TrEMBL record, chain A:
Purpose of the protein: Catalyzes the conversion of 2 pyruvate molecules into acetolactate in the first common step of the biosynthetic pathway of the branched-amino acids such as leucine, isoleucine, and valine.
Record-given protein name: Acetolactate synthase small subunit
Top EC class of this enzyme: transferase
Pathway(s) where this gene product acts: Amino-acid biosynthesis; L-isoleucine biosynthesis; L-isoleucine from 2-oxobutanoate: step 1/4; Amino-acid biosynthesis; L-valine biosynthesis; L-valine from pyruvate: step 1/4
Automatic annotation (TrEMBL), chain B:
Catalytic reaction annotation: 2 pyruvate + H(+) = (2S)-2-acetolactate + CO2
Cofactor(s) it depends on: thiamine diphosphate; Mg(2+)
GO cellular component, one term: acetolactate synthase complex
Family: Belongs to the TPP enzyme family.
Residue intervals of the Thiamine pyrophosphate enzyme TPP-binding domain: 396-544
Lineage top rank: taxon: Bacteria
NCBIfam families tied to this protein: acolac_lg
Protein name in the entry: Acetolactate synthase
Domain Thiamine pyrophosphate enzyme N-terminal TPP-binding: 4-119
Enzyme class: transferase
Length: 193, 583
């Protein structure tokens, strides 16, 4: 259907492109941030993300090879369009040097977990040991009643192992949160290991 | 040469060209006040409340384009200036706020008058600093000025512990080069991407119904000349936001004046029916867009802004151009000219402008005047006349602010200074004082509401003390008028807590504070007292205009509705006249 406004022809049918308004796909995003190691920089970043109403799933920070410069890996679940806003806002912060959402580029992700498992019987010890070996974990502490296991890997691997350890009874657990890095070349993860 | 931290502060401020500071002293900032006294080279305006000092610095900055400086003590001094900081942040006002802090070794101990002002203001400053070491003091202050005034401007806070103002150091003031080098992550884009500019040029030439939508970014970039040139070159009508007022002269034939919730019928109709919207230094605020899905539903959008995060924040745009508005517009004009500045559909463009003329005639900005009661719009019109349209106008927040936007015509940038983003009642008087101090050659009129005025009216004393001849016109409807209007229209006249019939006698109040006071209760008195007020040159004048209590600001797009749901100046809906529109 067509009509005129001041002689100019216009479409009266449902507007051709309804404005997209901050609605995108909701999913997990991995954001890498390179920052100057100034006081309050972590608070500034956390405030910004929280201020947009998003919960940080995980956040890890550590120094890089360059003095005074740290790298953060932030995991946030949210709407694609709003996360894009968050990334732009993070870029605006005075102390950020580089911000990149690497969700959709090939990247390596790792997390370290320490988990203390209840192993009072020798049978439990044998079984846990086997699981740890399969997942290339390490037993880093032993007591008459427990094993403390260290494992690194991506989320799937860690979750799979924790699932298998659960029936024994998990007494304590600590996760570092993810660190992630863009791959230089796209090599399938399996080939690397 | 060794000198105290406090002296370094003053020395650095002078290096930055600061000629006036707005503030109020206290224990933690006393050393700096002592240095200020001993130096004598910077004027200081003693506000009566730190909120006043903050808005004065804003008014000064908005009127001059220079960085406004405010200074307070720690604790309550610092928290009192939080509102102006948030206000400056929302309106991109360049401002540096210096706060005193308890001595370094007491930080975190809940010491007397301690507050974590850096933490409090983190989400409302462009950046903020806590000084930890006297040797970084001059670098931090210079960084603060550089950050506040470049890119998208904004407020920067510098928190200085008392011991640092007392220590001695021979640190040198760093050069601008050193300042930039110390900010490796901060590089505002100014140039604009040429590929995007070319895409924009193509859209502009092909458009049948283009509209320019201009915001405060165009004022900050001083881009009036470029805007006029672009509009005239391509015959594009121009609508502005409250922040963009004066960036394009409102008496220009292509001016649509203000768009949005209280925009003109013709601006809103033009935007609604446009097929190309060129947003210039504007941020698609919800007061402008209304229901976002129905905002300019048929238009492609070009967005020029210095702040990449402003682009596609509320609305996905077709051509984003990040850069300084003035520079980008200049390139855009050059590129258009290189292509012959041809319009692909000249006839349709012509018809578009004719249609806009029809809309202008159909619903101009009007109101029904009265001989018995003073209409608020009449007061604004009379102010326009006695000032020959040349005054700087500073409103509070409410109905009077919208009437001031509608019934005064603005012709130059930085002529209408309002709290657009945060909508801060109490902004008017102190901001007006700051503006008059920054632009003493201009007549400055504060157009305030009776509700807004009493929030910061103690600053009258400041204006008297420093002989700042601001004119204050109180549009006195004895209501929190704008809230009452919403209650009338959307809450079946349940006037919950908006009655201000018990107010001070503003004339006596003015006199008690050493200012001149006038009151008008009948329409014929309006002009008389305005003319009297214009004669006063050495102190502030407070004019109490007792107006029609239940007058409404119209036209209006109801909150969350679209332009086609506009309520017109006679209270009718626009629906009947908009049948032939898009969508
Ligand atoms: C500090 C602050 N508190 C509350 C509001 C909400 N508010 C917006 S307009 C308004 C009424 C303003 O009344 P007045 O200043 O008398 O102006 P009028 O609307 O009557 O012209 C109020 C309470 C605000 N904008 N700012």
């Amino acid at each position: 259907m067509a009509d005129t406004v001041g002689g100019a022809e216009i479409t009266v049918a449902k507007s051709p492109r309804l404005r997209q308004t901050r609605k995108g796909q909701v999913r997990k995003h991995i954001i890498n941030v390179k920052v100057r190691n100034e006081i309050g920089v972590l608070a500034r970043i956390a405030t910004l993300i929280a201020g947009k109403g998003y919960n940080i799933e995980s956040l890890s920070v550590g120094e890089t090879h360059e003095p005074g410069i740290s790298r953060m890996t932030i995991e946030v679940v949210g709407d694609d369009i709003v996360i894009d806003q968050v990334v732009k806002q993070l870029r605006k912060l005075i102390d950020t040097l580089k911000v990149r959402d690497i969700t959709d580029v090939p990247h390596v992700e790792r997390e370290l977990v320490l988990v203390k498992v209840h192993t009072p019987t020798s049978r439990a010890r044998d079984e846990v040991l086997r699981i740890v070996e399969i997942f290339r974990g390490k037993i880093v502490d032993v007591s008459p009643e427990t094993y403390t296991i260290e494992v690194t890997g991506d989320e799937e691997k860690i979750n799979a192992m924790l699932e298998l350890l659960k029936p024994f009874g998990i007494k304590e657990m600590a996760r570092t949160g993810k660190v992630a890095m863009r791959r230089e070349l796209f090599i399938e993860e399996g080939n690397l290991e | 040469m060794s000198r105290k931290g406090a002296d370094i502060v003053i020395e650095t401020l002078k290096e930055e060209g600061v000629d006036v500071i707005f503030g109020l002293p206290g224990g933690a900032i006393m050393e700096v006040y002592d240095a200020l006294y001993r130096d004598g080279g910077i004027k200081h305006i003693l506000a009566r409340h730190e909120q006043g000092a903050g808005h004065m610095a804003e008014g000064y900055a908005k009127a001059t384009g220079k960085v406004g400086v405010a200074m307070t003590t720690s604790g309550p001094g610092a928290t009192n200036i939080v509102t102006p900081i948030a206000d400056a942040y929302m309106d991109s006002v360049p401002m540096v706020v210096i706060t005193g802090q308890v001595p370094t070794h007491m930080i975190g101990n809940d010491a007397f008058q301690e507050v974590d002002i850096v933490g409090i203001t983190r989400p409302i400053t462009k950046h903020n600093f806590l000084v930890r070491n006297i040797d970084e003091l001059p670098l931090i202050i210079r960084k603060a000025f550089y950050i506040a005034s470049t890119g998208r401007p904004g407020p920067v806070l510098v928190d200085i512990p008392k011991d640092i103002t007392q220590q001695l150091s021979d640190v040198k003031i760093p050069s601008l080069e050193e300042v930039k080098k110390a900010l490796p992550g901060y590089k505002p884009h100014t140039e604009g991407n040429i590929q995007q500019i070319k895409k924009a040029v193509k859209l502009i030439m092909e458009a049948k119904r283009p509209v320019l939508y201009v915001g405060g970014g165009a004022v900050n970039a001083e881009a009036q000349e470029e805007l006029i040139e672009l509009a005239e070159l391509m015959k594009i009508p121009v609508a502005t936001t409250t922040q963009g007022k004066g960036a394009f002269p409102e008496n220009h034939p292509l001016a649509l004046r203000m768009l949005g919730m209280h925009g003109t019928y013709y601006a809103n109709m033009a935007v609604y029916n446009s097929d190309l919207l060129i947003a210039v230094g504007a941020r698609f605020d919800d007061r402008v867009t209304g229901k976002i899905d129905e905002f300019a539903p048929d238009a492609k959008i070009i967005h020029i802004d210095i702040d990449p995060a402003s682009i596609s924040k509320n609305i996905i745009v077709d051509v984003p151009i990040v850069g300084d508005v003035k520079i980008v517009l200049r390139k855009l004009i050059n590129e258009l000219k290189r292509k012959g500045a041809k319009v692909t559909h000249p006839e349709e463009r012509e018809k578009w402008l004719e249609q806009i003329e029809k809309w202008k005639k159909l619903h101009p900005l009007t109101y029904k005047n009265s001989k018995k009661v003073i209409k608020p719009q009449y007061v604004i019109e009379q102010i326009y006349e006695v000032t020959n349209g040349d005054a700087i106008i500073v409103p509070g927040v409410g109905q009077h602010q919208m009437w001031a936007a509608m019934f005064y015509k603005y012709s130059y940038p930085r002529q209408f200074l309002n709290s657009g983003g945060l909508g801060t009642m109490g902004f008017g008087l102190p901001a007006g004082i700051g503006a008059k101090i920054g632009r003493p050659e201009k007549e400055v009129f504060v157009i305030d509401g009776d509700g807004s005025f009493v929030m910061t009216m103690q600053e009258i004393i400041t204006a008297v003390q420093y002989r700042v001849p601001v004119k204050v016109a109180i549009v006195n409807n004895a209501y929190l008028g704008m809230v009452r209007q919403w209650q009338e229209l959307f809450y079946s006249k349940r006037y919950s807590e908006v009655d201000l019939s018990l107010q001070p006698d503003f004339v006596k109040l003015a006199e008690a504070m050493g200012a001149v006071g006038f009151r008008a209760e009948k329409p014929k008195e309006v002009r008389e007292i305005l003319e009297e007020a214009m004669k006063v040159e050495d102190r502030p004048v407070i004019m109490d205009f007792v107006v029609d209590r239940e007058e409404n600001v119209l036209p209006m797009v109801p909150p969350g509705k679209s332009y086609k749901d506009m309520i017109l100046e006679d209270g009718r809906g626009a629906e009947a006249e908009t049948m032939y529109l898009v969508g």
